[in-house]
Amino acid sequence: MKIWPSRKLNMQMKAQSAALIDKLKKQYAMDDDHLFHIALIPEGLKLDVSPDYQIITWELFKEEHGFNVQDNYFYNYLTFALEHYKRLVGDKFGQSETVKGYETGQTIYQEWKEQKGLWVGRRGGRPQIIKDIKEGKWKYREYCWNTENPQKGQKDNWINSEEFVKLVETNKRQGE
Q1: What is the sign, positive or negative, of the torsion defined by CA atoms of 70, 71, 76, 79?
Q2: Same domain, 14 and 75
Q3: Helix crossing, 161-171 with 105-113: angle to 10°?
Q4: What's the pLDDT tens digit per position in 6-54?
Q5: Does one domain contain both 63 and 108?
């Protein structure tokens, strides 16, 4: 399975760049040496390099670098987030007891064929999955997955991968 945060982070940063950074560059005739697009992320994501933007970790603000941010609103919330990081996001960012990751329908379909059973989640559950399949969106749409039947969250939002495959095979559009 792919790791969720790096792709999602890249999507978010590209959206920010298009909506804000690129417009600022154009409006004020600035280049990359004068305008910085920086991702502020927790060290736990284990991302440190991107060709499109700089990365600074939350922890930088906790270290001694001459920042005078002690006892301000940002610093206090950052401290709270770092101290409670694992409890807030699980052992891996974006993962919890309910959602272990995200993957496209096509990958889930192929992996089940290789005998890798999963639980597949989608807000709205089975009816929304059927709608995705009938509209042809299932291949590229990302679904939540878990290796065990989730005991928390909305139980109606989850089906096993065997049922997912059967739904694809019985509901997919002609020519797929």
Answers
A1: positive
A2: yes
A3: 110
A4: 677 788 888 888 888 888 888 888 887 888 888 888 887 777 677 778 8
A5: no
